Amino acid sequence: QRLKAAVHYTVGCLCQEVEEDKDVQFSKQSIAAISEITFRQCGTAGFPAGCFLILCRHAKRTTVNMEDVKLLARRSNSLLKYITQKSEELASSNMEQKEKKKKKSSAAKGGRTPGEQEIAVSENEDSNMA
């Protein structure tokens, strides 16, 4: 009931914004109807946590991953497209962070890349043998 009331309140606020913006008016009945439709639609399109758990167990995993989310979102093309886009953005952001960490760690080790460090070590070994 509290969730339904929150949806009704939010729809009312949005309708107020539209009224101010577009110079139209919404009756209380139309706001209630929009709220009810919104609530029902969210109920059918929403993804309860149990759905994710079922997918994980079926795949013999204990962690929900992005593919599980995409699988459940496939009924809505726009939602699937949005989730895929965000997933790709997160993946590229993670790769950038990993690259920055690699650069910082190599700079902390004397500013050499791993290949340059190997060459320096082998040169030291050669000079020690002579």
TrEMBL record:
One MF annotation (Gene Ontology) recorded for this entry: DNA binding
**Classification via InterPro entries:** CENP-S/Mhf1 (IPR029003), Histone-fold (IPR009072)
Q: Name the Gene3D superfamilies on file.
A: Histone, subunit A
Nucleus found in the keyword field = no
Kindly state which keywords UniProt assigns to this record, in alphabetical order.
DNA damage, DNA repair, DNA-binding
Set out the biological process GO terms recorded for this chain's protein: DNA repair; replication fork processing; resolution of meiotic recombination intermediates
Q: Which GO terms describe its cellular component?
A: FANCM-MHF complex
Q: Name one Pfam family in it.
A: CENP-S
Q: What is this protein called?
A: Centromere protein S
Q: Tell me the name of the encoding gene.
A: Cenps
Q: Which family does it belong to?
A: Belongs to the TAF9 family. CENP-S/MHF1 subfamily.
Spell out the residue ranges making up region: Disordered. 89-130
